[in-house]
Amino acid sequence: MLKMLKIQLTLFFVMITSSLVFSQERCGTMNRLNYEMTIDNQLNHKRQKIENKIKKWKNFNFQNSYDIPVVFHIIYEDNNENISLDQIQSQLNVLNEDFNRNNSDANQTPSEFIDFAADCNINFCLAQRTPNNDSTNGVTFTQTNIESFSIYDNRIFYDSLGGKDIWDPNKYLNIYVCDLSNALGFASFPGTSQSRDAVVINYNNFGTINILAPYNKGRTATHEVGHWLNLEHLWGPNNNPGNASSCSSDDYVDDTPRCIGMTSCNLTSNSCSNDAIDGYWTTDVVDNVENYMEYSNCEKMFTNGQKNRMRAALQSS
Ligand code: ZN
Ligand code: CA
Prior knowledge:
It is built from seven helices and six strands, in the order αααβααβββββαα. It has helices at residues 2-23, 29-39, 43-57, 85-98, 111-114, 219-228, 304-316; strands at 66-76, 122-126, 139-143, 173-178, 185-187, 199-202. Mean pLDDT is 92; it is low at 9-22.
C-alpha cells in the first residue's frame, strides 16, 4: 500500500516537473527551426549552401573585430513587459562582455578549457540610424493587445499584426523582447527568411536588473545570439539535452568535446568518450559544461572553434 502511494506520488511529481519543462523550454530554437522548415521549403537548401561556404573560412584565424548594430524591439502588453532603457543597456553590456571575453566570471573557467576559451572580438552597439536613415536610440516600443507569443507566432514580426516590422537583418541584429510563453528565447539560424531573421527573448529573463535567478545573468540572449551566428547546441541537433544518441551527432565545431548536454553545472561530467572523432582532441576529455551553448546555468565561455564558426557566418553573409 505504502509502496503504491510512493509510486503514485512519484508519478505525480514527474508529471508536474515535465509539465513545467514543457510549458517553458530553455531554448526554442530547434523547434522554431523545424517549424521554419515547414513554411520555407528552401531553408534546408540555403543552410546547406551556407555550410559549404563556411568550410572555406572555418580554420582561418580572422583578427578583425566586427561591430554589429542592434535594434531592440520591445513588444509589451502591460507595464511589466514595458522594460526600461537601463534594462536594455544591462543586456547589451552582457553581450559585449561575453563575446569579448570580458565577462566577470571568465577567471572561473576550469584549467582544461582556459586555453581554448575565445575572445570572439564581436561588438554590439545600439543602432544610431533607422532603415529610413532617421536618428534613433536603437530601441522601439510597441504596445500590443497580444497577451503572449509562442515560438511559432509570426505576428511579432509585423506592425499590422500586433508586433513590429523587422529592420533589414543584413544591417541589424533585431532582438525582440516580449512575453514569450513557451521558451526563454529563440533565434533564427542564418538562411532564415529575412522577414523573420531575428532573436526573440522573453521579457523576464532579459537583462540583469531585478531578474530572478538563475536566468538573471543575461545569458539567454548570449546563447540565442550564438544560434543567430550559426552555433548549434554542444550536443548537436537533438531538441533536448540528455540523449545518449547525441554522442554520434556533431555541432560542426571541432574543439567542443562530444557530449549529450547538461542541465546542471556538473563540472566532472564526461558523457561521451569519442571526443577524438572531430580531429581536435586525441584523448577522451570532460564535457565543456560551461559553454554558452549548454543549459548548465554556469555558462561562461565560447571556444575558439565556435568563434571561427560565428565569424565565418559573418564573413559569408
Ligand atoms: Zn539554444
Ligand atoms: Ca568526453
